[in-house]
Amino acid sequence: MIIAETIMEVREQVRAWRAEGLTVGLVPTMGALHEGHASLVTAAASQCDRVVASVFVNPTQFGPGEDLESYPRDFEHDCQVLEAKGCDMVFHPEVAEMYPEGFATYVNLESEMTKQLCGKSRPSHFRGVCTVVSKLFNIVTPDRAYFGQKDAQQLAVIRQMVRDMSFGVEIVGCPIVREEDGLARSSRNTYLSAGERSAARVLYRSITAAREMIAASGVEVPADEVLSLMRRVVSEEPEANIDYIEAVDGVSLMPVERVKKGTLIALAVYIGKTRLIDNFTV
Ligand code: AMP
After folding, report:
1. Distance 126 CA to ligand 1 centre (A)
2. How far apart are CA 269 and CA 101, in angstroms?
3. Given its phi and psi angles, is residue 180 left (phi above 0), alpha (psi -120 to 50 degrees) or beta?
4. What's the pLDDT tens digit per position in 69-79?
5. pLDDT above 90 (res 218)
6. Closest to 234 measured CA to CA, from 264, 202, 207, 260
7. Is the pLDDT of residue 219 over 90?
8. Which ligand 1 atom sits closest to the C-alpha of 146?
9. How confident is the model at residue 57 (pLDDT cuts 50, 70, 90)?
10. Distance 45 CA to ligand 1 centre (A)
11. Distance CA 2, CA 282 (A)
12. Could you tell me whether strands 89-91 and 2-4 are parallel, antiparallel, or unpaired per DSSP bridges?
């Protein structure tokens, strides 16, 4: 597996692959890789001739007081995971390579979409995500790029950005990979103490309860009923503090009053100081 630290190295390698007529898949990550990331690389390797993964903790998507400095980093382990799953090149730039002195251009989606869900408590987050993902698309020029449904809002925002900016890349959304007890895999799970890890199961418990209610009703259910049930389940866990639990349209991300096919039910919950997100689409 090639380890590239500069934009130029990536461009040269991709150019050589293109000259051979090979297709290229991109998997953007912030490292501290787990089975969720690994599933994206596996999907990319099965659909593309060559796979590029990026490992870059992107400072512009962290707000003041968030966990930029403490975000877990383990590049050696990341390389092992990537190589085992069939990644051909990892792009691991320094911050100055991506944001050289004088950097001043951002990609910002100016719709209500980025102000919903995580956008309420993380107002500059999606501007950072769109900016770094745009740069990665320009650097790697992939045929396809792979994103997890775990970050459902990010996936919807990127789909809209690709449409709006005419990026010639196909966005592939991949299912959420979970631990055996249902907790969605996340690099931030490493912040949890043993007690908090056990408390964190409440996110999936609330999802399961909601799914059961929706399945049992068989028709459209008022969103309030589903959301109150989820809030009740989460509130039973003393370590848990709800940031949001919402039902929105899966494409526009605007709130809906009735839960039906295509509705995205998403939640963000603090377990101690750690903010965890999860979701499901009806
Ligand atoms: P991150 O390193 O957290 O920025 O995530 C990089 C990519 O991996 C994003 O597209 C995430 O949605 C995806 N991802 C993270 N966790 C999971 C998971 N548990 N299942 C599927 N995809 C995931």
Report:
1. 15
2. 36
3. alpha
4. 999 999 999 99
5. no
6. 202
7. no
8. 10
9. very high
10. 16
11. 40
12. parallel
Catalytic residue among 34, 37, 92, 125: 37
Q: How many Å apart are CA 168 and CA 123, to the nearest integer? A: 28
What is the phi/psi pair of residue 263, to 5°?
-75, 135
Q: How far is the CA of 187 from the centre of ligand 1 (A)?
A: 8
Q: Which amino acid residue places its CA nearest to atom 14 of ligand 1?
A: 148
- pTM, rounded to two decimals: 0.97
37 as an active site residue: the answer is yes
Ligand 1 lined by 125 (C-beta under 6 Å): no
**Encoded tokens for 85:** 């799953």
Give the pLDDT band of residue 50 (cuts 50, 70, 90): very high
* Cβ atoms of 192 and 144 closer than 8 Å: no
Cα distance between residue 172 and residue 148, in whole Å: 8
Angle between helices 125-140 and 7-19 (to 10 degrees): 50
